[in-house]
Amino acid sequence: MSERFLVTGGNRLVGEVSVGGAKNSVLKLMAAALLAEGTTTVTNCPDILDVPLMADVLRGLGCEVDLDDSIVRITTPAEPKHHADFAAVRQFRASVCVLGPLVARCRRAVVALPGGDAIGSRPLDMHQSGLRLLGAHSTIEHGCVVAQADDLHGANIRLAFPSVGATENILMAAVLAKGETVIDNAAREPEIVDLCNMLIQMGAKIRGAGTSTLTIQGVPKLEPTTHRVIGDRIVAATWGIAASMTRGDVRVRGVNPKHLSLVLDKLRVAGAEVTAEADGFRVVQEARPTAVNFATLPYPGFPTDLQPMAIGLAAVAEGTSMITENVFEARFRFVEEMIRLGADARTDGHHAVIRGIAQLSSAPVWSSDIRAGAGLVLAGLVADGVTEVHDVFHIDRGYPRFVEILQELGGRIERVDADPASQR
């Protein structure tokens, strides 16, 4: 049966939280295990629904996968299967990241078009065009991405947009291609650097990780390795924004604060006292937050994954905030749910104008994706009465121990079965 959260507003969040490995990294690291025969071990894995879903995808490709708390062991056969079917990949977007490794190892890949969050168009054009430049033939057939290559060779590839997914797939195909590949306008996210570091440990030759130009010298073979996932900057920032919204005091550990420099600066503008520490940061907000403008951009810009939380902060801030969404066009559907909570908000194309009010009002709301769900819960923490958040399975896909952590910080939230009559 589906579940919902009951969130009672009014409490400050106070305490300390440790974040686990990054969702946006671990799934790609698991896919990279396809590149080497033998057992690859990934540690510091988050306890989220997408990890066992990716494990199922890999099992369908012939791998043995052992999930042991925060450790995932993936044993890849000498000849993996090349077809990732719809049943395995339909539930989450990151499943498409097996495309590059399968083309590299098997010279053929059939990957059903993935599902995932409803946040706007995320086409695979750049993935396919990059693979074509490496020598693969790629088409869409019967709901699947089909790619085949007699041989892979290095190429100069310039991405039209610094797409994280396209960078990852092209990178993982290029590491086993003959010759040199240069990816220009590559994504620069910390999760890309994490993937590069693991591939280098496996024997890949990669230069430029963390810059907009990646240079890959192909090698004949990679070896399995053990790698620790970096801390989840999006989860960490969610707790930091929650502290600011509730006028709380929260210390977040397990993440590199340099990965969140712009986000922490925005919280300072909102009036929070923010202290960067060796393995995290602390956010203390004494007074009502001040209005802040946000514009989402690829890293090192403000993350689109934090846009719903930024809107939640703006909704209770003093003054008027402008939120500009430059990455996913449909992400503003979250604003409709915030209006149900009393937010004074309007959208116009890529822009949302939020006039802050002193307190939101409780209402039933529905999650449309992982981050929208988290944003609605944060809004419920600063609303009067009890807010019902539905479709919370989205949140479970990206936030480990979400309810338990909020309770430990002093938030009033409980997980209950959803009322069938309330389902959309």
Structural commentary:
The protein is α/β, with parallel strands linked by helices and 424 residues long. It has two domains: 3-20 and 231-422, Enolpyruvate transferase domain (UDP-n-acetylglucosamine1-carboxyvinyl-transferase, Chain, Alpha-beta prism), CATH 3.65.10.10; 23-224, Alpha-beta prism (UDP-n-acetylglucosamine1-carboxyvinyl-transferase, Chain). 30% of the residues lie in helices and 27% in strands. It has helices at 23-32, 50-60, 86-89, 99-106, 125-133, 164-174, 190-201, 233-245, 261-269, 307-315, 333-340, 370-381, 393-396, 402-408; strands at residues 3-8, 14-18, 38-43, 64-68, 71-76, 83-84, 108-112, 137-141, 144-148, 156-158, 180-184, 205-207, 213-217, 226-228, 249-253, 273-277, 280-284, 294-295, 320-324, 344-348, 351-355, 360-361, 364-366, 383-384, 386-390, 412-417. A four-stranded mixed beta sheet has the order 23-25-1-26, with helices on one face. It has a four-stranded mixed beta sheet with strand order 2-15-17-16, with helices on one face. Helix 5 packs parallel to helix 6 (164-174). The relative contact order is 0.16. Residues 116-122 have low confidence and may be disordered. It comes from Rhodococcus wratislaviensis NBRC 100605. One of its GO terms (molecular function) is UDP-N-acetylglucosamine 1-carboxyvinyltransferase activity. This is UDP-N-acetylglucosamine 1-carboxyvinyltransferase. Phosphoenolpyruvate binds at residues 23-24. Pfam families: EPSP_synthase.
